[in-house]
């Protein structure tokens, strides 16, 4: 009996020690080792891949969780987390390492919630998008760290100001009832972006991501698109809503309310009601990653500001993990809402790139390579259409509930008459050079968080 008790005391002592030992700042080698350790512990549900290299040649490693790693299963949504885009904002990087270890451990312990999540979702975790900047910031350490040291990549470029600006095109397109999704990239975009940005954009287009968050520091708030103000010259209080504004607010609130204190609103000397903010309402930001996700892909991304101190002390990491753990899980679960289904042809083959339009929401999404689509929606009744070139479009009325996503399949029959007509009538091309020349980007003053 006494021996048993002694064993228990020892067990808890050891467990506590082991647990707290994990809360330390991981440099590049530590980060790689931590990811491979998780892969070793959970080989059947994980995969490590690199999306490319940083300017100094460090790999941008992603850890994937899935019941079938490396494979897209139709109707199983793809989710991503991106950390440490600003090299000196390091909490996201540490939280994503913790999250990886947690998902693996809990899966092995047969935790119901985690098992369900991994069986129904393909989760991609990029703990550091800016490993070069991190090393610069880490050299200074938590206490001596200047506000901006290591923020940029090694070429001194702010990666969250380095994506092609598609907002300007979109705001023009809105006025002329032009395209409302997948805006085209400028011709020479590749030569205008950094290695890290290029790798991330190619990653974004290789997977049909549905939901994402991008982890930062310097404030505590869940920030949702648009980041770039619609109104010329406006800087403060210029709320720039997307057509999915109510959904984005709900996504941001899911994080802030599952977080230990974010929802309380008062943090780092700022106040944000419910712990959320529209990006442009806070301050306008051009060429950010969050808006780019929404305007160029099917992915809905929010930006999470997670700590006042961009480089928290090691001793604070454990508290931060417990403050964020449930929020990180709950936010992934948000990928399972709205409607999803297959867009098929007359022979039941999937139709890729079919547009899914929802009446009243001026933002279409498209089906993936296998013809499956995912349309995040709040509960309600919607009129939804699927369309593809050369086919008759199909429209249905659906009622979305609060729990599981509703499966709505479409079958689009060929429309010979329609395809002949389309060939004859030149489609107005919004993306022509003539149109784009009319749009003059404006300079924006920027604040150093997002
Ligand atoms: Zn940041």
Task: Give me the secondary-structure topology.
Blueprint: H1 2-21, H2 28-41, E1 46-53, E2 59-65, E3 78-83, H3 91-108, H4 112-120, E4 122-126, H5 131-144, H6 167-175, H7 189-192, H8 195-206, E5 209-216, E6 219-224, H9 245-258, E7 266-267, E8 270-271, E9 276-278, H10 279-282, H11 289-296, E10 300-307, H12 317-333, E11 339-344, E12 355-358, E13 361-366, E14 372-375, E15 380-387, E16 394-400, E17 406-407, E18 410-411, H13 416-424, H14 433-437
Parallel strand pairs: 3-4, 3-5, 5-10, 6-9, 11-17, 11-18
Antiparallel strand pairs: 1-2, 2-4, 6-10, 7-8, 11-14, 12-13, 12-15, 15-16
The chain binds zinc ion.
Residues 86, 89, 216, 449-450 line the site of zinc ion.
Q: What are the low-pLDDT stretches, counting only 5+ consecutive residues below 50?
A: 11-20, 425-446
Whole-number count of domains = 2
Rounded to the nearest angstrom, the distance between the terminal CA atoms is: 56 Å
> What is the fold named in CATH at topology level of the largest domain?
Aminopeptidase
Instruction: Report the β-strand fraction as a percent range.
Output: 15-25%
Bound molecules: zinc ion
CATH architecture of the largest domain: 3-Layer(aba) Sandwich
Helix proportion of residues, in percent? 25-40%
CATH class assignment of the largest domain: Alpha Beta
Biggest β-sheet description: 8 strands, mixed
The number of helical segments is: 14
The quaternary organization reads as single chain
Identify the strand order in the major beta sheet.
1-2-4-3-5-10-6-9
Output the radius of gyration: 23 Å
The tally of strands reads: 18
Please tell me what the overall shape is: globular
Helix/strand/pairing class, anyone?
Answer: alpha/beta
Main location: membrane
Protein name: Carboxypeptidase E
GO molecular function: metallocarboxypeptidase activity; zinc ion binding
Subcellular location: Cytoplasmic vesicle, Secretory vesicle membrane; Secreted
């Amino acid at each position: 009996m006494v021996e048993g008790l002694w064993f228990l005391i020892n067990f808890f002592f050891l467990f506590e020690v082991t647990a707290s030992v994990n809360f330390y700042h991981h440099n590049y080698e530590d980060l790689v080792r931590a990811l491979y350790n998780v892969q070793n512990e959970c080989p059947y549900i994980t995969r490590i891949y690199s999306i490319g290299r940083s300017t100094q040649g460090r790999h941008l490693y992603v850890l994937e969780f899935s019941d079938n790693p490396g494979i897209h299963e139709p109707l199983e949504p793809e989710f991503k987390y991106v950390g440490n885009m600003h090299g000196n904002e390091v909490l996201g990087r540490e939280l994503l390492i913790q999250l990886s270890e947690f998902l693996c451990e809990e899966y092995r312990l047969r935790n119901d919630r985690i098992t369900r999540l991994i069986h129904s979702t393909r989760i991609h975790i990029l703990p550091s998008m800016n490993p070069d900047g991190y090393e610069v910031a880490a050299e200074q350490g938590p206490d001596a760290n200047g506000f901006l040291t290591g923020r940029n990549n090694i070429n001194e470029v702010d990666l969250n100001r380095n994506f092609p600006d598609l907002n300007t095109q979109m705001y023009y397109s809105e006025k002329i009832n032009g395209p409302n999704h997948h805006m085209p990239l400028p011709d020479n975009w590749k030569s205008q972006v950094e290695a890290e940005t290029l790798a991330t954009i190619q990653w974004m287009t290789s997977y049909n991501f549905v939901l994402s968050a991008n982890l930062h520091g310097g404030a505590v708030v869940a920030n949702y698109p648009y980041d770039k103000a619609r109104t010329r010259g406006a800087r403060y209080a210029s709320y720039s809503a997307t057509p999915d504004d109510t959904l984005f607010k709900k996504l941001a609130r899911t994080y802030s309310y599952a977080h230990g204190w974010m929802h309380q609103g008062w943090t780092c000397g700022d106040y944000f009601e419910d712990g959320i903010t529209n990006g442009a309402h806070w301050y306008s930001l051009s060429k950010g990653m969050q808006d780019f996700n929404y305007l160029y892909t099917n992915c809905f991304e929010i930006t999470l500001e997670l700590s006042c101190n961009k480089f928290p002390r090691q001793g604070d990491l454990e508290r931060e993990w417990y403050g964020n753990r449930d929020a990180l899980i709950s936010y992934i679960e948000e990928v399972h809402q709205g409607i999803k289904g297959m867009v098929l042809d007359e022979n039941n083959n999937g139709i890729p790139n079919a547009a899914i339009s929802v009446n009243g929401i001026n933002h279409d999404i498209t089906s993936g390579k296998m013809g499956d689509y995912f349309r995040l929606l709040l509960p309600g009744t919607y009129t939804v259409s699927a369309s593809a070139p050369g086919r008759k479009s199909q429209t249905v009325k659906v009622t979305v509930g609060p729990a599981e996503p509703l499966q709505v399949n479409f079958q689009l029959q060929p429309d010979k008459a329609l395809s002949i007509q389309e060939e004859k009538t030149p489609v107005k091309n919004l993306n022509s050079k003539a149109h784009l020349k009319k749009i003059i980007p404006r300079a924006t003053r920027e604040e150093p968080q997002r």
